[in-house]
């Protein structure tokens, strides 16, 4: 029994490590096409919403558009889901979260999640904690991004989905449209 659990954990780890490593190589093709930019502007219709998207690095914009396209290809077009797809990781921008931090987060979440929480909680203390701030920002980015999305005038359900996008939703609790949209976002995010 424990061998199976260990094997399952290793498969999850390998999948996540591959995912994060492949993100590094997506930098090469991170620029959006004119048609993709038009698509972004059709979802994020106001200048403040577009400014939020524009503050993300090219790799995060690429990820967001890929996520949006995955959802659209699956037949999902709910406006709140589309906004959340484009802005769910907006608070990672400008926080010093590099691809190396993201890979470290995946490894820590897979093998030592308590260490990640410890790193993040120690980030408040002066210069020694300065290198730890990206870990704290990584853990806090859903709440921060939701606040920014709300200030930019995004749909209330999109704001809530952004706030919850890293939180597990038990499959037995899919009572609301928001929960269903959140599950769709999370599944598509895992694919991208």
Largest sheet: none
Helix percentage range: 55-70%
Shape type: globular
Structure summary, number of beta strands:
0
Q: What does the radius of gyration come to?
A: 17 Å
- Through-space gap between termini: 31 Å
Order of helices and strands: HHHHHHHHHH
Sequence stretches where pLDDT stays below 50 over 5 or more residues: none
Q: What structural class do helix, strand and pairing data support?
A: mainly alpha
List the helices and strands and how they pair.
Blueprint (H helix, E strand, L loop, with lengths): L1 H25 L7 H10 L3 H8 L3 H16 L5 H9 L11 H13 L1 H9 L11 H19 L4 H9 L12 H15 L1
Helix pairs in contact: 1-6, 4-5, 4-10, 5-9, 5-10, 6-7, 7-8, 8-9, 9-10
Summarize it.
With 192 residues, this protein is an all-alpha fold. The protein is built from ten helices and no strands.
Keywords, please?
192 residues; mainly alpha
Would you write up a description of this structure?
With 192 residues, the protein is an all-alpha fold. The chain has one domain (2-191). It has ten helices and no strands. The protein has helices at 2-26, 34-43, 47-54, 58-73, 79-87, 99-111, 113-121, 133-151, 156-164, 177-191. It is globular and about 50 Å long. The model has no long low-confidence stretch (mean pLDDT 83).
């Amino acid at each position: 029994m424990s061998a199976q659990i260990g094997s399952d954990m290793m498969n999850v780890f390998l999948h996540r490590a591959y995912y994060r490593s492949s993100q590094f190589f997506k930098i090469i093709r991170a620029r959006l096409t004119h048609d993709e930019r038009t698509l972004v502007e059709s979802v994020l219709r106001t200048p403040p919403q577009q400014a939020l998207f524009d503050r993300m690095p090219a790799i995060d914009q690429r990820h967001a558009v890929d996520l949006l396209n995955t959802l659209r290809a699956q037949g999902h077009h709910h406006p709140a889901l589309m906004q959340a797809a484009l802005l769910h990781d907006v608070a990672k921008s400008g926080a010093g979260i590099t691809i190396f931090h993201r890979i470290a987060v995946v490894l820590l979440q897979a093998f030592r999640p308590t260490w990640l929480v410890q790193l993040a909680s120690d980030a408040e203390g002066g210069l020694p904690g300065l290198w730890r701030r990206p870990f704290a920002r990584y853990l806090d980015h859903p709440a921060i991004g939701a606040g920014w999305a709300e200030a930019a005038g995004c749909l209330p359900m999109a704001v809530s989905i952004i706030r919850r996008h890293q939180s597990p939703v038990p499959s037995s609790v899919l009572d609301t449209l928001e929960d269903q949209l959140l599950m769709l976002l999370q599944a598509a995010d895992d694919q991208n």
